[in-house]
Design a protein that fits this description.
single chain, alpha/beta, TIM Barrel, 8-stranded parallel β-barrel, 3-stranded mixed beta sheet, about 50% helix, lyase, metal-binding, Fruct_bisP_bact, zinc
Length: about 350
């Protein structure tokens, strides 16, 4: 199918929240990892989200170029072409963008999409994330409000983060402490600043002990009940329908979480869960095995010529893509999106 239209993306997210499932949002940094993600979603019969981080976008532009906008535009163009051959709906997203990279990443991409929409074309991406977790909440939400207006013009969904995710991503590291848990007051402030759906569509990454990367058991204390409390706080504050879930929630730092923790978070309104570390390992592990098993073929040992069929990048690349695709299927099954692709 073609890349999801803005209307189809909103339908995907609404269906997920109503149906009690969520989409894996798979980080990619190359055509190979993109193709692996697409195959994984298709194998699972799941719609999905494919995203690039600031570092991934730089890498996609060329390691000596390091231009986030160039890499993002190239990624979106390639994805739009190859996704047509898969029977699932795919949305494109840009991942964590801190304040110092807004002018070199999200804002230029929003302008490109706004111009495309004015010409009657689809936006380049379906959603963008503003990561204001490192700034005070008031400033975070002020920037979010400005970006939400620009997203509405470009028919793009905004994702924000309220709270701090621990661990490390793209060179940014946060401590693991009590700041990792969003409060009821945080949730109410967010709804007051951005609305609860009536002023434009956005997704919210509230934090409940999340960390980027994978940590040993016992080092990460997830409390999905924080999400339930946040939804209930907004319902009560604004007199919404009892039992409703005003926020479309996002689960960051999902790699290494237990199936039970994931299921509970989804029950409370999570519609998107980022998966990066686990799929990176799933991609790289078959490459390591190929190199170790065929070291005398991939290397020209003792003056020999090696084996072209074994050092051809397609030989180990196919194994890597298959490994990553299988991990995407697993993520779809854990999030209960498998077999639920919309027509």
């Amino acid at each position: 199918m073609p890349i999801a239209t803005p209307e189809k993306y909103a339908e995907m997210l609404d269906a997920a929240k109503a149906g009690g499932y969520a989409f894996p949002a798979i980080n990619v940094s190359s055509s190979q990892t993109l193709n692996a993600a697409l195959k994984g979603f298709a194998d699972a019969g799941s719609d999905g989200i494919i995203q690039v981080s600031t570092g991934g976008a730089e890498y996609l532009s060329g390691p000596s170029v390091k231009d986030m906008v160039t890499g993002s535009v190239a990624f979106a163009a390639y994805a739009a072409e190859v996704a047509k051959n898969y029977p699932v709906n795919i949305a494109l997203h840009t991942d964590h963008c801190p304040q110092d990279k807004l002018d070199g990443f999200v804002r230029p991409l929003l302008e490109i999409s706004r111009e495309r929409v004015q010409r009657g074309e689809a936006p380049l991406f379906q959603s963008h994330m503003w990561d204001g977790s490192a700034v005070p909440l008031e400033e975070n939400l002020s920037i979010a409000a400005e970006l939400l207006e620009r997203c509405i013009e470009a028919k793009i969904i905004l994702e924000i983060e309220v709270g701090v995710v621990g661990g490390e991503e793209d060179g940014i590291e946060n401590a693991i402490n009590d700041k990792l848990y969003s409060t009821r007051e945080d949730a109410i402030a967010t709804a007051r600043a951005l609305g609860h759906g009536e002023r434009g569509y956005y997704m919210t990454a509230l934090t409940f002990g999340n960390v980027h990367g994978v940590y040993k058991p016992g080092n990460v204390k997830l409390r999905p009940s924080v999400l339930k409390d946040a939804q209930e706080a907004v319902v009560g504050e604004f007199g919404l329908e009892p039992g409703s879930k005003p926020f479309h929630l996002v689960f960051h730092g999902g790699s290494g979480s237990s199936a039970e923790e994931i299921a509970e978070a989804v029950d409370y309104g999570v519609v998107k869960m980022n998966v990066d570390t686990d799929t990176q390992y799933a991609f790289t592990r078959p490459v390591a095995e190929h190199m170790l098993r065929n070291y005398d073929g991939v290397l020209k040992v003792d003056g020999e010529v090696g084996n072209k069929k074994q050092y051809d990048p397609r030989a180990w690349g196919k194994a890597a893509e298959a490994g990553m695709a299988a991990r995407v299927v697993e993520a779809c099954e854990n999030l209960r999106s498998a077999g639920r692709a919309l027509a």
